[in-house]
Amino acid sequence: MPEFQTTPGTRDILPPDAARWRAFVDSFARVVESAGYSQIILPMFEDLGVFQRLGDATDVVTKEMYDFVDKGGRHIALRPEQTAGVCRAYVQHHPVVPWKVWYAGPNFRYEKAQQGRYRQFDQVGIEVLGVDDPQLDVEVIALAHDFYRSIGLKNVELHINSLGDTGDRARYVEALASYFHAHETELSEESRITLARNPLRVLDSKRSEDTDVIAQAPSISEFFSPEAAQHFDSVQEGLALLGIDFVVNDRLVRGLDYYRSTTFELVSTALESAQTAVGGGGRYDGLVEDLGGDPTPGIGFAIGLDRTLLACDAEGVFPAPDQGADVFVVDTTGGRAALRMASALRAAGLRAERTYGAKSMKSQMKTANKSRALVAVIIGEDELARGVATVRPMDGGEQSEYSLDAVVATVVDIVKKAK
Ligand code: AMP
Fold it and tell me: Were 311 and a residue from 102, 268, 386, 411 both cysteine, which residue would form a disulfide, CB within 3.0 to 4.6 Å?
């Protein structure tokens, strides 16, 4: 075993998977940019306080933060998610609203590493600040839905809920707390601990001891104000209008404390592991204010890239892009001709490869075959002396000689026709 390996919860994304990751982000960018979102690139670490605003009752903040004091004595944390950073940036730069941004990149949480749950994991996501309109909620949910469709996933279920407005949520939490306290002896030990910190999170428990108590717990819908009920109705109407199927799940409370009103989660029914949530989001009216800004409504979602790709594997969709070469340069004259030819082919936009060091014609052709190049450009002593090269289609088609000047245009033509 080598002395150094990736630490638990981190992975090397090797070729060709890394190209698949990039294609994933590209597909996401296409979908959300079509709806007017612009990319934002946030720092990977911020003052710890930015993330503490996510709430002190979430594991993400209390147990899973990668935080440290830097050499300047600042208490810093690696970002566990990007919504807080977006809101911090909004308060810092006061952009014009509605502010519609998308992001991609890694987040860090000190979790128990397992299949689909890592300590460094990637997300793509969007946030909109400054609009409190249920139609926006519908659009945001529809974009997540459209993105999954765009990469070919079919077995993704949309679960939605509303946590009401701030007052509703507070009254619900109170009612939930007294309900769970009344049934405390029936709860698992873990849930009793959770109850002391945040009664809402008890609803997340998947432990069998808790199932019955949770099933009988009051529902948030009993606490909706007329406005909150109206907002949630409009969201459901809008989704129906767009033909997007959904399930109302009144136990869906989501991990982070800042959620209000509409919340949603996307669950892969193709994944068999314990980790089936491939994305989620909702409204977080209140977070901007907590970060020192004016009261500003916000909504967004994050899609877990690592886990969504596991769902793609399970459904057999979105393979790594084909990265075969377009053209392979074979040079038996020492390599300088290949150096120039490959450079000219690449400048014309082709993916051109070659071998290095003195290799025989046979060995170079073998590598050319492996590269899955469509065309080989062969330069031998005799060709070089005559200022020509042989262009050989790799599918067994007829080869011809071209003057060195004409080779690039010829190859571009052949590749274009083949693709
Ligand atoms: P959250 O930010 O917790 O709402 O998570 C949004 C999505 O990110 C989840 O649905 C997962 O797909 C993904 N995710 C969250 N935590 C992890 C993790 N530790 N490892 C892999 N994916 C994660």
Answer: 268
Does 112 lie in the same domain as 33?
A: yes
Q: Identify the domain boundary among 252, 286, 315.
A: 315
Q: How many domains does the chain contain in total?
A: 2
Query: Which of 315, 344, 376 is the last residue before a domain boundary?
Result: 315
Is the whole model's pTM more than 0.90, yes or no?
Answer: yes
Q: Quick one: which atom of ligand 1 is closest to the CA of 125?
A: 6
Q: Which two tokens stand for residue 14?
A: 């090797």
Residue with CA nearest ligand 1 atom 11: 304
Same domain, 252 and 397: no
Both tokens assigned to 218: 């009051």
Q: Please check whether residue 28 lies inside any domain of the structure.
A: yes
Q: Whose CA is nearest to atom 14 of ligand 1?
A: 304
| Cα–Cα separations (whole angstroms), residue 349 to 66, 328, 388, 393, 408 | 43, 14, 21, 18, 10
Q: Is the CB of 194 under 6 A from ligand 1?
A: no
Q: What is the pLDDT of residues 299-354, one digit of tens each?
A: 999 999 999 999 999 999 999 998 889 999 999 999 999 999 999 999 999 999 99
Give a yes or no: residue 10 inside a domain: no
